[in-house]
Design goal:
The complex is a heterodimer of chains A (about 130) and B (about 170). In chain A, about 30% of the residues lie in helices and about 45% in strands. Chain A has about 130 residues and is of the alpha+beta class. Chain A has one domain. In chain A, strands 1, 2, 3, 4, 5, 6 and 7 form a seven-stranded mixed beta sheet that branches. The model of chain A has no long low-confidence stretch (mean pLDDT about 90). Chain B is α+β, with helices and mostly antiparallel strands and about 170 residues long. Chain B folds into two domains: about 30 residues; about 130 residues, no CATH class. The longest helix of chain B is centred in the N-terminal third of the chain and has 36 residues. The relative contact order of chain B is 0.14. The mean pLDDT of chain B is about 85. The chains are: A alpha+beta (about 130), B alpha+beta (about 170). The interface between A and B is large, with 40 and 35 residues. Chain B: Keywords: Membrane, Transmembrane, Transmembrane helix.
Chain lengths: ~130, ~170
């Protein structure tokens, strides 16, 4: 009986450990989506005015220069982005980049951003979907 | 007598065996529950970090994006209103309705947003959705604060006024 209980306990331990690893991987993917979004909004898509980079202002014309892949923590990730603005008559730009794969964990984040559009700064939503390549 | 005593001690041994196995079983059950219950901690923390990021991004968007038909930013327009700049570039009623549209469009689903600006005795508080009240003390809030500075041109010299601005996101009940 005691041996049976030990076996049950060890089985529970192994099951909990594998679940824990899976949850850590999921949390890591969520954090990676945050990192990729930050990098896009603050660097790669940031509007450049003269010599000054305007962080949090997205320049749509820079999307064509993206390769939609990023290395984070030694792992390679792919991403797809979509921009939405004008709530009265919503305009959708994108999606740009590869399509998320079926059956793989994908982390999506939607953040408010400012879009540089025809000389004006308008509010918009940037959606970023990230997955392991 | 010796046979009776032997019988009694065998019974006591049997009962203590059953009790110890029962306790071991209970410990295994509790251990299983504990081992599995900690699994969502990492995900909840990651989601909280994302919500904090969204609060900051919403603040920056209010700080930078221009009010429809005007060149002033939303935070700038509200700050002018609160500080009492005259004449105001953006009328208060129009600003409030445009802000309502912005906040309802940009706030995360299932979450409410409150924008607060204050300067001396004057303040601007706007909730989205409109009918949601202040969050309960035990509700988790994600806040980003800053100061918005306005230079007011005067007859003799210019005046600098700074309004405190806060954006708070919290889960709706």
């Amino acid at each position: 009986m005691a041996i049976l209980l030990v076996i049950v306990f060890l089985t529970l331990l192994v099951s909990a450990y594998s679940q824990h690893q899976e949850m850590l991987a999921t949390a890591g993917l969520i954090d990676t989506a945050t990192t990729v979004t930050n990098n896009l909004v603050l660097n790669r898509l940031a509007f450049v005015e003269g010599y000054r980079t305007r962080e949090y202002v997205v320049d749509v014309e820079k999307i064509s220069s993206l390769d939609f892949r990023q290395e984070v923590g030694g792992e390679n990730f792919l991403y797809q982005i979509t921009l939405r603005y004008n709530p009265r008559d919503e305009t959708v730009l994108g999606p740009y980049g590869p399509s998320p794969p079926e059956g793989k964990p994908v982390s999506a984040i939607v953040v408010p951003v400012t879009l540089y559009q025809k000389g004006r700064l308008i509010y918009a939503k940037l959606e970023v979907k990230v997955w392991r390549s | 007598m010796a046979v009776l005593k032997g019988g009694l001690s065998r019974e006591k041994g049997g009962v203590s065996d059953i009790l110890s196995i029962a306790f071991m079983f209970l410990i295994v059950v509790f251990a299983g529950v504990l081992l599995h219950s900690y699994r969502f901690g990492a995900i909840n923390s990651a989601v909280d970090r994302q919500m904090q990021l969204k609060a900051e991004y919403l603040y920056r968007t209010l700080e930078l994006s221009q009010v429809e038909n005007y060149s002033l930013s939303y935070l700038g327009a509200v700050a002018e209103n609160v500080i009492g700049v005259s004449p105001q570039v953006v009328p208060g009623d129009y600003l409030r309705s445009e802000l309502d549209l912005l906040l309802s469009y940009l706030r995360p689903p299932g979450y409410a947003v409150v924008l607060e600006l204050s300067y001396e005795n004057s303040s601007w508080v706007q909730f989205s959705p409109k009918d949601v009240g202040p969050p309960a003390p035990d509700v988790e809030k994600f806040t980003f604060s800053g100061k918005f500075t306005i230079v007011i041109a005067g007859a003799g010299e210019n005046r600098v006024a700074q309004a405190n601005a806060t954006v708070t996101i919290f889960k709706m009940g």
